[in-house]
Specification:
Helices cover 57% and strands 7% of the residues. The chain has 136 residues and is mainly alpha-helical. The protein has a two-stranded antiparallel sheet with strand order 1-2. The radius of gyration is 38 Å and the shape is rod-shaped.
Amino acid sequence: MALFFIGLFTVLMVLDCLILILLVLMQLPKKEAGAGLAFGGAATDALFGAGSGNFLTKATKYASIAFFVLTLLLAILQNNYYHRHNSEFRRLINQPAQTTATPAEPSAAQPAVTAVPSSSNITLLPSSSVSTNSAQ
């Protein structure tokens, strides 16, 4: 669930960044020259009316507030999400190993097999037929 909100807030933040870029570029420059005029700052009067400076200033203010709120929310959510998984991982590592099955010992019905080297290949014989002083 937290991963959904992290993705949603990330998309909202990218859209907010694009809106901020457009708002800054559309604002009228103070000295009637610069990037605002070059990217259509003079057209904002026709689009938004005579008080476009006030509208764009307020919109920029609200978009920047939204940017900082989204940044804080994303930082908090990601911190909680990744530390939660880290603590689960540490808990699993520090948990004592529980052995549910013990290795079965060879029974008398199935004798253990011992390898005896020979000149051409390895012969496997039951351990009861191997003597301790066998040398070839």
